[in-house]
Amino acid sequence: xxxxxxxxxxxxxxxxxxxxxxxxxxxxxxxxxxxxxxxxxxxxxxxxxxxxxxxxxxxxxxxxxxxxxxxxxxxxxxxxxxxxxxxxxxxxxxxxxxxxxxxxxxxxxxxxxxxxxxxxxxxxxxxxxxxxxxxxxxxxxxxxxxxxxxxxxxxxxxxxxxxxxxxxxxxxxxxxxxxxxxxxxxxxxxxxxxxxxxxxxxxxxxxx
Length: 208
Prior knowledge:
Elements (H helix, E strand, L loop, with lengths): L2 H24 L3 H18 L3 E5 L3 E6 L2 E6 L2 H12 L9 E4 L7 E5 L2 E2 L2 H8 L3 H12 L3 H9 L4 H12 L4 H4 L7 E3 L5 E3 L6 H7 L1
Helix pairs in contact: 1-2, 5-6, 5-7
């Protein structure tokens, strides 16, 4: 990691502490204080060379050097960052290089990935997108028919490993299906990886 990026991340942590302290003085509600502080943090990154590239329902993404910096914009975003930091590293997930050390991390630094296409599912997971989607659905609904189907599909070893990994962490099935292609990317090694994996059943129930 280049020194300037490491220095930016160190400054980012200091900036977040200052922003949160300032936001607490301006807000009676702690949730509002968090949101204000996160907004200040995104402004700091923009002002220091970060290139805004995307935004979801609760996080903003900036390109910093050859990395993607995901900054929470809501309390749900903090929870999603926390979950991504807790999940074990995997070849199926975009790599996290560093993250804010708070219990609810304000930011995570990952590989910058290029856009994925459906051909990458076949290349990396070794199944067609529609087959993966059927396997994910079968895993989510534990019926005799689905169990029989998954037994037949164990010949697809990589895809089976993937859906078992997703199920282990209760990641939402709809978020990992091929139609949610924006949740995927192609890492620097040319492999398909899930880039947005901070939403499990608990986070969904609490914030959505």
